[in-house]
Design brief:
Largest sheet: 8 strands, parallel, barrel
Shape: globular
Order of helices and strands: EHEHEHEHHEEEHEHEHHEHEH
Low-confidence stretches: none
Strand content: 15-25%
Structural class: alpha/beta
Strand order of the largest sheet: 1-2-3-4-7-8-9-11
Length: 309
Amino acid sequence: MDLEAKVGVLLPTVKAQWAAGDEPRQVVRLALTAEELGYDSVWTNDSVLTPRIEALTVLTAAAATTERVTIGTATLMPVTRRPVNAAHSLASLDLLSGGRLVVGVGAGFPGRFGVPLHRLSEVPWERRFARLDETVALWRRLWSADEPVTFHGDVLRLDNVPPTIRPHTAGGPPIWLGGSTPAALERTGRLYDGWLPYPPRADDYATGLKVVQQSGRAVTPALFVSVAITNSRAEGEDRLRGYARTNYGMDLEDLRKIQAVVAGPPSHVTEHLRAYVEAGATHLVCRLAAAGLDDYRRQLELLAATVNT
């Protein structure tokens, strides 16, 4: 099928996604495999709550191994990093990749996936959205500055910060926001370069995108979606059910209420993804519901054959 959208894949950096005997260094090789199969981008996600290879470390290795694909975070949690240090790391990665970096960011979720993350990072949960927006604003200042930067926001206050190394991309890499709340939609349109949500329904995506676009700014509309290619829809449901339990500790029915997921034969997956493209998505970031790196590689090939047919 021709989706008329860019398609990328989330690399399997989380230990729960590996099978016994898997060699974690193969994760970087999978980035090259994705490029060879024609994917447009490779991505990593970010957390300190579960064992995984750190997101920017993987992308640095992937940038050195690949030549063409966009490399991105889906999403990075800036709260886990000091803002000035993060600006330095991201500028360095963009520079070394030749300007292929996209930085997807998020502010964390209420409950067990968000509050503990802030606690471990020694950052207050309160005012997390303001902290995120100000961190991004500080990054952009540092990436463009020739003189020391003084930044006084409502949350961040820094004086005479030396400018960091200039990224390859003028003004810094594009920054996409993950989130679908009314406040997130408004902030995306006003402050960010792209939108990377995962609404469970395509019509919800279309509705949210209209709000984002009200600002009149050019914002890249993307989608984060969990995908598996299987022989039947029943087999796909079983695969997604196991994936939801392994990665989130929740039932598929609960995951499906909050995230975009699809599994089944190529025609079924095609129909589901096309609905989001027709709703406005121009870049699909696909998390492959795989069990082990060999299974991931097979899914990588199957999805490539599906989207490139």
